[in-house]
Specification:
Strand order of the largest sheet: 3-2-1-4-6-7-9
Structural class: alpha/beta
Radius of gyration: 20 Å
CATH class: Alpha Beta
Helix content: 40-55%
Order of helices and strands: EHEHEHEEHEHHEEHEHH
Number of helices: 9
Shape: globular
Amino acid sequence: MATWLITGCSTGLGRALAQAVLTHGHNAVVTARNVSTVQDIADAFPGTALALPLDVTDRAQISSVVKQAQERFGGIDVLVNNAGYGYRAAVEEADDADIRQLFDTNVFGAVDLIKAVLPDMRANRSGSILNISSIGARLKPAGSGYYAATKAALEGISGSLRKELHPLGINVTVIEPGAFRTDFAGRSLTQSATAIEDYAETAGKRRKENDTVHGTQPGDPAKAAEAILAIVDSPNPPSLAVLGQDAWDAFAAVADAELTELEEWKDLSVSTEIED
């Protein structure tokens, strides 16, 4: 039995994962900014679930959640940084305060949680950290530059962290989901107040009022949750796991296009060497 700390459990993937973890017999610290939205999960598993309020931008709350988890279950074996939200705007349209809040939540909130759980994981020489990213970090769609940037930043941190922690028996895996039937494109999606007409045919097509994806996504959050459990249970978990046929296809297409362009510009790239 492992103890999981999962952020952003009120809806979608976080909620499905919390339920799957508990159904499999593990302990789970189930968190959300509004704890009443996850209390039903804890009520269904009174012996193994602990529901706690957590705003990942509040360091005092992070410390409190980690302390309560340790007091209740003895420690945290698996951290899942799932809390986050989407933001759509052309780069020029975005409000400075919106951008900083996005990074505080999607990047620095995850980092603060990682730093809070690592002392015990290092002492135990075991643990697993899963950071939920997005295929958007690979695709970089027009209108999602800042969101893609937060996920790219999280992936960069995760890659270095994996190298730092692997010798200590701690795994780090990035999860890149495609489009799943969650609330991501609904309540959890925000956008700039300003819309510039010149971007109507690029970033503008991704604004909420023009979005037709919500409610039609192909991915099943319950199946994604089972896949994440399988990753944690694996003796050799991957550094990056892509979830969804759409995400796999998109990842492959981007990788092929990048390799083609790399080869196309190879002569110029290697021409910059100092000649003896």
